Predict the structure of MarR family transcriptional regulator.
Amino acid sequence: MPSTSSAPSAPPSAASPYEPRWLDEEEMAAWRSFVTASNLLNRRLERQLKEDSGLSHTQYEILVHLSAAPAGSLRMTELADKLVTSKSGLTYQVTQLEKMGLVGRRSCPSDVRGVFAELTDQGREMLREAAPGHVALVRELLIDVLSREQLAVLADGLGQVSARLRLDDAL
Amino acid sequence: MPSTSSAPSAPPSAASPYEPRWLDEEEMAAWRSFVTASNLLNRRLERQLKEDSGLSHTQYEILVHLSAAPAGSLRMTELADKLVTSKSGLTYQVTQLEKMGLVGRRSCPSDVRGVFAELTDQGREMLREAAPGHVALVRELLIDVLSREQLAVLADGLGQVSARLRLDDAL
DNA sequence: ACACCTTCGTTCGAATTTGAACAATAGGAG
DNA sequence: CTCCTATTGTTCAAATTCGAACGAAGGTGT
């Protein structure tokens, strides 16, 4: 009965020490639509990017974050944090992008251990080409489907959620 | 300059045939927080489930959907749709769950090709044990962070988004 | 009955992801 | 300066993911 959560009419009879607060119908709807929208959206964006630019969404996001950074470069760890991936995962993807000539590695002057991932000219060019199609789809599938108010709530609410998550992670 | 989208002050000078409609600050904030929240949330839930129940989020969701279905069973394709994964991905995971004794396969009477994934008693028990901890975390990290109104907007807006995505996919 | 196109679930190989273990270094307390 | 602990990025093996290709049926129209 307990789906992700709710037990509308019949909570799991008697199980755990303290019966948890299940999700009511509305909470459940919010959670389900969040998960579903996220999955569906990812799927579509992945396909679009791969077909039109030969990039995975992850790779695209790496380019985006680098392009937004001061010198088109970021420390590996910092980049991993922004992307919300594992360090090893980033190492892998940066290597891939390096092979494609879109990103380069530079050692950090102030810290021998440090490594900067740096956007190459080719990388910038690739981003310039890939961005329009990607943005158009994000707009079509998400942004333009929602009202201004809904967008504001999304930004606000999920911003809060993210902030909390970040804090916890920092522990 | 174009991150996922926005070009706040300086749009990419002149590139594509038709300059796309970049995302303004608010749209950008909504999109970023959506992506980030989704990733962070997934990461946490994944860890919690694995540690407390030895299940991946995907596996947990399979159990949830089966438990919510008429006879605790669903056709593979139907289940794959609900989960928003590839058919091959589902085949793999159902096999894993089968090895764990949480799910079984049954052939479909009316269609020789069809296969039903079916929740075993052990699977139901596992779900009963895993649900409280999972729900508690979803509540702590998302539900309880948002107000009733925000939840309503989430459910509504993202529900719409999902619905559209589903339609497109059906093509 | 026959051809034709769709659907079903699996298999296969390739790509990706993750956490743990590591070696090298940084940084701080004494 | 000298321990001791935290951090950095990589490597490694294992797990998971996907899409394309398949073999086997279903369904339809003629």
Observations:
- Chain A touches chain B through 71 residues (CB under 8 Å).
